[in-house]
Amino acid sequence: MKRVKWGRLRIGIIMSCRIDRLVVGEDLVVLCISGEITGQDVEVLRTALQQERTLLAIDLKGLLLVDREAIALLALRENGGTELRNCPAYIREWVSRERAEMWGSGQKQTIEEREDVDDV
User: Fold this and answer.
1) Whole-number Å distance between alpha carbons of 86 and 22
2) How far from 12 is each of 15, 16, 107, CA to CA, in Å?
3) CB of 39 closer than 8 Å to CB of 11
């Protein structure tokens, strides 16, 4: 197992989110998220996710706070096959509702298409 730490400091104040990259075997990467994912932290997470080229899981055990943009990203990733592990109940419920809103109308978008729309 190999553990790599990601993180971002808010301009000299506090660390708002931490992303630990855990390599399990040859074909699975688990990103362990802790802290808060709001605002600019969503872009940090999006970048970390886009850099992965193997099977991916996101462990949310240490996640304390999220905003709607973070939930939308998690819903997109889960819909694309990323496993959400140790998801707190309130985040699971919110992700499920977000997925239902995104794809409940029968209109399915890929992660890339949805992220392109979000970037506009």
Assistant:
1) 15
2) 9, 11, 43
3) no
The encoded tokens of residue 82 equal 């990323």
All structural domains of the chain, each given as residue ranges with its CATH number in brackets, are 2-119 (3.30.750.24)
* 61-106 per-position pLDDT tens digit: 999 999 999 999 999 999 999 999 999 999 999 999 999 998 775 5
Angle at which helices 89-103 and 68-79 cross, to 10°: 70
Classify the phi-psi angles of 81: left when phi > 0, otherwise alpha if psi is within -120 to 50, otherwise beta. left
Q: What are phi and psi of 92, to 5 degrees?
A: -55, -45
C-alpha 68/C-alpha 76 separation (Å) is 12
Alpha-carbon distances of 5 from 36, 76, 94, 110, rounded to whole Å: 16, 24, 27, 28
The answer to whether the beta carbons of residues 43 and 37 sit under 8 Å apart is: no
CA–CA gap between residue 90 and residue 94 (Å, rounded): 6
Model pTM? Answer: 0.75
